[in-house]
Amino acid sequence: MSMGKTALIIGANRSIGLRLVKALQARGWTATGSIRVSSKEDESVKDSIINASKAFGSGPLDLLINNGAVGTQHLKWDEHTSENMMRLFSTNGPVQAIKHFYPGLKRSKFAKVINISSGSASITNNNGMNLGYRVSKTSLNQLTMTIAKEARANGDNIAVVAVYSGHLATRMSGFSFSHDMEEYINGVANLMDTIDISDTGRYINWKGETVPW
Ligand SMILES: NC(=O)c1ccc[n+]([C@@H]2O[C@H](COP(=O)([O-])OP(=O)(O)OC[C@H]3O[C@@H](n4cnc5c(N)ncnc54)[C@H](OP(=O)(O)O)[C@@H]3O)[C@@H](O)[C@H]2O)c1
């Protein structure tokens, strides 16, 4: 019996991540969501990525969605500490997750790495505030483009794309004003079927439209 296309969504205990798992399952994907044990220290978290990638086994991974992230409660630029900046960078830049799941992605005929970005990543659309989060998400976009270019240069059939899922009422956004949750999650889930290799390195929204860097 076919397992269907396989997907792993990192950071899926609630909100956008959990909804994406459900939306993909409804579309026939064999979708798994990861959750973390909140008491774990950084080293244990790194180990847990390695252990999870080993536990995933030797099958192909068709889709990796890097959704897990932390925000800052609308701090002014001079309220950021270096510890705060480093935490945002290390959590919101999923290099290790991509690295350890890359062998599984390479075993897919065509795989996708989707980095859940943000409208806040855009330098063009910057309206101030939230420096640390903005910088971490702009850096995620740079990470997306860089890995996309290297994957292509290596002949890997893997599209790496940054996707802005809309402004949605979640814990991170303080359950503030929102786009329509169902419409936007469905938009992102639909993209998982339509993104192809020509999309690699793009920064797009839930409708597949280009967002200005
Ligand atoms: N909501 C919006 O309006 C909005 C707008 C633009 C972009 N986004 C992006 O959408 C994604 C999901 O955010 P959300 O709004 O659903 O926020 P959320 O409700 O705060 O959920 C964040 C998720 O990330 C996980 N996470 C946090 N730190 C992690 C770590 N070190 N390792 C693994 N997972 C970790 C959380 O798990 P724990 O419970 O274990 O912390 C949780 O599952 C994020 O990338 C965010 O930047 C959201």
UniProtKB/TrEMBL annotation:
This is Short chain dehydrogenase. The lineage of its organism: Eukaryota, Fungi, Dikarya, Ascomycota, Pezizomycotina. InterPro entries: NAD(P)-bd_dom_sf, SDR_enzymes, SDR_fam. It comes from Exophiala bonariae. Pfam families: adh_short (PF00106). SUPFAM superfamilies: NAD(P)-binding Rossmann-fold domains. Belongs to the short-chain dehydrogenases/reductases (SDR) family. GO terms for molecular function: oxidoreductase activity, acting on the CH-OH group of donors, NAD or NADP as acceptor.
